[in-house]
What we know:
The protein has 357 residues and is of the alpha/beta class. It folds into 2 domains: 2-147, Rossmann fold (3-Layer(aba) Sandwich), CATH 3.40.50.2000; 165-355, 3-Layer(aba) Sandwich (Rossmann fold). Helix content is 38%, strand content 17%. It is built from 13 helices and 12 strands. The chain has helices at residues 11-27, 43-46, 62-78, 91-99, 132-143, 164-176, 201-212, 229-243, 258-265, 277-282, 298-301, 335-338, 342-355, and strands at residues 2-6, 32-38, 53-57, 83-86, 104-108, 119-121, 184-189, 218-223, 250-252, 270-274, 289-293, 311-315. The strands form 2 sheets. A 6-stranded parallel sheet has the order 3-2-1-4-5-6, with helices on both faces. The chain has a 6-stranded parallel sheet with strand order 9-8-7-10-11-12. The radius of gyration is 21 Å and the shape is globular.
Amino acid sequence: MTILLIRLRLIGDVVFTSPIIGALRRHYPDARLLYLAEESAAPVVAAHPDLSSVIAIRHSRGLERIGDDLRLARRLRRERIDVVIDLHGGPRSALLTWATRAPVRVGYDVPGRAWMYTHVVHRPRAYRPRHAVVNQWDLLAALEPGLAEPPDRTRDRVTMHVPADVDADTHRALRDHGIGDGTRLVILHVSAGNPFRRWPESSFATVAAALASHPCNCTVLITAGPSDHQAASRVIADARRHAGVDPAQIVDAEHLSLWQLRAACDRASLYIGGDSGPLHIAATSDVPIVALYGPTLAERSEPWRPSSIPTANVDAGPLPCRPCDQRVCAPGDFRCLTNLDPSAVVAAATALLGEAR
Length: 357
């Protein structure tokens, strides 16, 4: 049997599908499991031991996408796929699911696309406080009753596997920054692809300065996406100005690859960041996490891993506009982010660092 999983676009969403990979391998130990993802997120699953192959595709547009998808459809047909699970539900993933001509095609009842599937799962239109892992698990239950058992945060935690050579390279890179095995390392991720989830740079700088000058004697590693390096540089400069400590305690990580970020988490004492892909990569490790939520809810996207691993969720509290669809800020002032007090983040961080001693 050949089973194809499709999850396009965002890194965090691909992380949330990793429990399903393990569940399918347990249930179908001899199956050939394929995964289709976009190149930017493919490293999340590229080294997964339960997958037979990962198909990484470009995020193309317009006429270029039509050509790419026609070629991809022909390739998928040659794979002779028996079952497809569309974990995305977007127009492109639905079309690719249908194009496989697999006898079993599972997807959500999205208007205008449900006809492309043989097994349709209801997905409420409203944003609800139900975790994304649980939402996607509904697709497994539609595939076969034996897969209907709810996911368990320990058995079915999110995972991301890193090749041994990347792990060794990351260790050397950290050592070159003066970060040895005895360093209390805090990873502070200061960017987000979605502007509705970007905490103010000044708030990140305040947290970095506080932790670098705290008696815990932490080294703060500042990370950011490839398009946000200037923002990271501003945060670092501001934090060093206010911390009054050795500048080497606030480190510019430049741009870590997804695999390198994951490897660095295994050597960190704490990770701090907003609800974006890097947070969910950190959740695949055992590093304690302080997660920052603006327009989103922790109930839907908090780290999906054993409850014994320390995690603190910090937000601005209840607001009539929260959660939102992240298209327009109704009040116009992004209060779900600007009202999130840096002192609350520092308090959560120092508490978790104290637990980790």
